[in-house]
Amino acid sequence: VVSFLLMVLLPQLLPFIKSVGTEIPTHTKVLMVASDFFIDYWYLIFTIPVGLFYLLKALIKRYPKVEYAVDSFKLKLWLFGPLMLKIRLARFANYFAMMYASGSSVLNALQISENMMDNKVLEQSVRNARQKISDGMQMSESFESTGVFPSMIVRMLKVGEDTGAMDDALLNVSYFYNREVREYIDKIEPAMMPLLTVILGGLMMWIMSAVLGPVYDAVSNVKI
After folding, report:
1. Greatest mean pLDDT range, 56-70, 127-141, 158-172
2. Cα–Cα distance between 144 and 151 in angstroms, integer?
3. C-alpha span between 33 and 90 (Å, rounded)
4. Among candidates 213, 202, 198, 216, which has minimal Cα distance to 29?
5. Which residues lie closer than 8 Å to 43 by C-beta, 6 or more apart?
6. At CA 197, angle to CA 192 and CA 200, rounded to 5?
7. Is 78 helix (H, G, I), strand (E, B) or coil?
8. Out of 100, 108, 196, 209, which residue is the most buried by the measure of CB atoms under 10 Å away?
9. Measured between alpha carbons, how far is 155 from 134 in angstroms, rounded to an integer?
10. Beta-strand (E) ranges in the chain?
11. Long-range contacts of 138-142 (CB under 8 A, 24+ apart)
12. What is the pLDDT of residues 80-101, one digit of tens each?
């Protein structure tokens, strides 16, 4: 809608705005510049984001460091970073608990769970923890040393080591994070619509005031 206003509707109204003879406000001048930019470079505006997306995908596929940096950025995103982390931690705890309960060794269960994380930062952290466990370090200490896993997971791993019920402890972790994800989504979803409404409403108000403001000023100065 905004693109249509800037590229089709505004070019038809701007000559009239310029001809009314009143001083053009600053926000109207900004809108005129934006309209000219959209008209002159529309092909760049619509193609560059798509090109950057596929370029990033190609770089991720070719360079592991780029993929690691992108996955690290995902976990730090405002609002959505903590949500993605909790989803992956719940998935990790669930798979690890199932394999441990089925009789798989800790190292083998960690190796399989590592591939379920779908995030290079978390995969590397599990790999580092697995290496330290194979060197003789306790599981809770090895996960704590990565600096990535929350203290709640470390505490539950410690409980599992002390009680011998590692699978139950991990299932509690999975249940806790799944509940956290549901509650987090329930909080974000109702807040998104008012936020989007305010943003889009402000944008449309700016466009309408920039177009109609000079016209109103011209009409109000007419002496009958």
Report:
1. 56-70
2. 7
3. 49
4. 213
5. none
6. 120
7. coil
8. 100
9. 20
10. none
11. 139/106
12. 888 888 888 888 888 888 888 8
Helix (H) / strand (E) element for 33: namely helix 26-40
| C-alpha dihedral, 197 to 203 to 208 to 211, nearest 10° | -170
Using the structure block, give the residue that is written with the tokens 């599981």.
139
Tokens of 58: 């190609």
Neighbours of 42 (CB within 10 A): 13
Q: Are 6 and 34 in contact (CB under 8 A)?
A: yes
**How far apart (Å, rounded) are the C-alpha atoms in residues 29 and 219?**
19
**Distance, first Cα to last Cα, the chain:** 38
Indicate the residue type of 140.
S
Look up residue 16 and give its amino acid. F
- CB-CB neighbours of 218 under 10 Å: 15
Residue with tokens 């200490």: 141
Left, alpha or beta for 136 (phi > 0: left; psi -120 to 50: alpha)?
left
pLDDT confidence band for 21 (50 / 70 / 90): low
> pLDDT tens across 163-217, in order?
877 888 888 888 888 888 888 888 887 878 888 889 888 888 888 888 777 777 6
Round the CA-based radius of gyration of the chain to a whole number and report it.
28
Read off the pTM. Answer: 0.71
Structure tokens at 40: 């002159």
Please count the other Cβ atoms lying within 10 Å of the Cβ belonging to residue 164.
9
